Amino acid sequence: MKKILLCALAVFSLSLTSCNNQKDPxxxxxxxxxxxxxxxxENMAKLMYGYEEASEENREEGIKxxxxxxxxxDQDEKEFLENMTxxxxxxxxxxxxxxxxxxxxxxxxxxxLRKENGKWVIVDF
Length: 125
Description:
Elements: H1 2-21, H2 25-37, H3 41-46, H4 56-71, H5 75-83, E1 85-92, E2 97-104, E3 107-116, E4 119-124
Antiparallel strand pairs: 1-2, 2-3, 3-4
């Protein structure tokens, strides 16, 4: 009985941890950046606004567009992606919005996030 209870608590703890990943805008931005650096359009899409409500067809179309966007990056953009770091996070919890600034050398890019169904998602990148 104790083993079953311990297993149940472990699974519950893991599920809470995975849910919390999208409650923190920095974690969502970091996961998005890692997916982008790996050219993982599917995981990028899962972190974006509207993904959960989209039909399977629209999800596939969105992933295809992300793949095309990644493929069209020039060498400077690819270098930026490989070496960028998250420098600044500006969260406005009361408005359920956040901005995350990514920097590499003299270049920077802002990710905009908002809460959707209680989870932080990427709105614009």
